[in-house]
Amino acid sequence: MPELPEVETVRRRLDPQVVGRRVTDVCILDQTVSRQSQAEMRALLLGKVVRTIGRRGKWLLFDLGDVTMVVHLRMTGRLMFQPDAESAGRRPRFHISLDDRQRLYFYDTRRFGRLWALPSVDLPAFFADLGAEPLEDGFTVRHLRDSLAGRAAPLKSFLTDQRRLAGVGNIYADEALFRARLHPLRAAGGVGPREAQRLHAAVIETLRLGIEHEGSSVESFVDPAGERGRFQEILNVYQRTGEPCRVCGTPIQRIVVGGRGTHFCPRCQPRRAAKRHAGR
DNA sequence: AGTGGCTCCTGGCGGC
DNA sequence: TGCCGCCAGGAGCCAC
Fold first, then answer.
1. SS3 at position A145
2. What are the φ and ψ backbone dihedral angles of A203, each rounded to 5 degrees?
3. CB of A261 under 7 A from strand C?
4. Cα separation of A214 and A241, whole Å?
5. Is A275 one of the catalytic residues?
6. Which distant-in-sequence residues (6+ apart) come within 8 Å of A212 by Cβ?
7. What is the mean pLDDT of chain A?
8. Within 10 Å of residue A97's Cβ, how many Cβ atoms?
9. Measured from the CB, is A24 under 7 Å from any atom of strand B?
10. Is residue A34 within 8 Å of residue A41, measured between CB atoms?
11. Among residues A254, A260, A266, A270, which one is catalytic?
12. A146-176 per-position pLDDT tens digit
């Protein structure tokens, strides 16, 4: 399931092939992919040159100057110039033709992915409810502590709530909580200053590691060249139920939090905050 | 306002 | 062997 590292990997792969190219056609083959019609899309996109490909959280942003095309891969969306073995024979949900005769196809088995074309001036409003970008300077320990404060929601739900933090999904939330040694059911507001510092570092390190490994291919994620990521090879807890913790050997447990499968080490991530010695 | 629960969607898998 | 039902989850919507 594409989260920030997977979307960033797609962005980096597409960038050199798409930037500078002019959009010559847009075909919507599955109308449920967008609230906008093919005619609306064409009116906004045709003839425009892709300036950059950006990313905000899990959204990909094709900057066409006064217009931006926004794509969300959701669970199974793939943007590819050539169908790979899995996509072959399937109908893409939309495709974009470029002036170098390349065509970018959107394959999406579960059909959760979405496409928008909007005036670039409307981008701030479009992302008004989206939280901090965890790999940018604005995401500080202070910022994290402020947004954790007073919240009753479990840490797992907090991390995957896109209004709090942009780009973290089920895999990286579980992995970041393991790295921070925090139990997924701990209340966000109950996290102490030092724990918040650990969580801040863990989120950043986990996402960076994910990008370095070009994402996790646990579902069917592949980049636009059909290549799998490698982060799944170094997962500590996600989908390792019953397997020994890589740190202490305790079997990894699976629970459901907010309706989502959640994996953790019951020994490394105790339910109760470690007791402070009242010493002195 | 914040939180939790439901829904969408389909391939894959367990169970009988 | 075949088929039924369940599971996975990002985000939007709704209810409390």
1. helix
2. -60, -45
3. yes
4. 24
5. no
6. none
7. 92
8. 17
9. no
10. yes
11. A260
12. 999 999 999 999 999 999 999 999 999 999 9
Strand C closer than 7 A to residue A75 Cβ = yes
pLDDT tens per residue across span A2-51:
999 999 999 999 999 999 999 999 999 999 999 999 999 999 999 999 99
Which residues contact residue A262 at a Cβ distance below 8 angstroms, ignoring those fewer than 6 apart?
A156, A170, A174, A184, A254, A255, A256
Give CA–CA dist A11/A9, Å, rounded.
5
Closest CA to A74 of A110, A124, A123, A128: A110
- The DSSP letter of residue A69 is E
pLDDT of residue A1: 78
Does the annotation count A254 as an active-site position? Answer: no
The nucleotide whose C1' lies nearest the CA of A158 is B3
CA distance A240 to A222: 21
What letter represents residue A223's amino acid? Answer: D
At A25 the three-state DSSP class reads: strand
Residue A84 identity (one-letter amino acid): D
Nucleic strand B near CB of residue A131 (< 7 Å): no
Can you give the distance from the CA of residue A132 to the C1' of nucleotide C13 in angstroms?
Answer: 23
**Residue A92 near residue A29 (C-beta atoms within 8 A):** yes
* Continuous segment of H or E residues that includes residue A108: strand A103-108
